[in-house]
């Protein structure tokens, strides 16, 4: 299947490791040039070299996307380098656990800035450029815990991930017909150095039980499996799909909608 991504340009935030790096590699494999960012320049350079091995041009911009002006710089430097922006994959995100009563304004503002506002800001800056091309699309990396409860201490994470799904559906209406907007909801994704990998190494038996009880396909998801779903959603082959949130979770989620 030709995904029609040859010679297009994508921005992927938080792509020095983990899911973001695999997404950048998958897009590059399809012939897409990629702009990537993360805070740690050395890790980002290593990731950029890996993405280049797929045959793509890569622009690697070390930055903290929560700092004022940085989302806009990411977009402008990408446009200056490649002359077009077809796709934005809003991947950057993190977690801050705590009970609702303990979490401070600062906690809320910090995680909203990282998991939600960074994507709003990059998207707002990118949309005028995306309107210049045919078949532009945005894809946010949410979580199954943006769709349903995911255990204790996740009020902040769940709220930011639900907000991403919500805004993507509103944007799909606002930006149609020129730009499609979707989100992906991964379940528990294990990759070397990631949080699930760490937990498996620390508590192998507990994690084995977790998988058995929670994931229908009886294994963790792979970052490549999320990357493949995102690449498809950003492609011409997904031209009828907008305003959707796709679970990529091996049957982990329990929500009926
Ligand atoms: N892993 C899972 O099981 C899972 C499940 C559901 C959803 N998700 C979502 O998928 C996305 C990726 O998850 P992941 O597990 O791959 O994350 P990860 O391993 O923690 O990687 C996060 C990436 O974002 C960068 N980053 C973090 N803060 C940043 C900032 N302020 N500015 C710029 N870059 C920043 C990191 O590099 P630096 O630290 O150098 O900045 C790194 O490249 C997240 O949105 C996460 O919520 C993950």
TrEMBL record:
Its EC number is 1.1.1.100. InterPro entries: NAD(P)-bd_dom_sf, Sc_DH/Rdtase_CS, SDR_fam. It comes from the Bacteria. Keywords: Oxidoreductase. The keyword DNA-binding does not apply. GO terms for molecular function: 3-oxoacyl-[acyl-carrier-protein] reductase (NADPH) activity. The keyword Oxidoreductase applies. It is an enzyme of class 1 (oxidoreductase). SUPFAM superfamilies: NAD(P)-binding Rossmann-fold domains. Belongs to the short-chain dehydrogenases/reductases (SDR) family. PANTHER family: DEHYDROGENASE/REDUCTASE (SDR FAMILY) MEMBER 4, DEHYDROGENASE_REDUCTASE 4. This is 3-oxoacyl-[acyl-carrier protein] reductase. It comes from Salinibacter ruber.
């Amino acid at each position: 299947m030709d995904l029609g991504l040859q010679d297009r340009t994508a921005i992927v935030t938080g792509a020095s490791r983990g899911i973001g790096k695999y997404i950048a590699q998958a897009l590059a494999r399809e012939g897409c040039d990629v702009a990537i960012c993360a805070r740690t320049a050395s890790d980002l350079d290593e990731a950029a070299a890996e993405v280049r091995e797929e045959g793509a041009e890569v622009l690697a911009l070390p930055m903290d996307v929560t700092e004022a002006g940085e989302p806009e710089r990411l977009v402008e430097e990408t446009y200056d380098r490649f002359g077009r922006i077809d796709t934005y994959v809003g991947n950057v995100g993190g977690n801050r656990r705590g009970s609702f009563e303990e979490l401070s304004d600062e906690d809320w503002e910090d995680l909203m800035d990282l998991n939600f506002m960074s994507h709003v800001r990059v998207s707002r800056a990118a949309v005028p450029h995306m309107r210049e091309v045919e078949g532009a699309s945005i894809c946010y990396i949410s979580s199954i815990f943006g769709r349903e409860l995911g255990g204790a201490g996740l009020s902040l994470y769940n709220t930011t991930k639900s907000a991403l799904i919500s805004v993507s559906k509103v944007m799909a209406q606002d930006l149609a017909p020129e730009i499609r907007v979707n989100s992906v909801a991964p379940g528990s994704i294990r990759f070397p150095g990631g949080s699930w990998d760490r937990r498996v190494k620390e508590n192998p038996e507990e994690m084995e039980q977790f998988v058995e009880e929670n994931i229908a396909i009886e294994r963790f998801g792979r970052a490549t499996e999320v990357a493949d779903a995102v690449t498809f959603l950003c492609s011409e082959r997904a031209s009828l799909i907008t305003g959707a949130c796709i679970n990529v979770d091996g049957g982990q989620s329990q929500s009926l909608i």
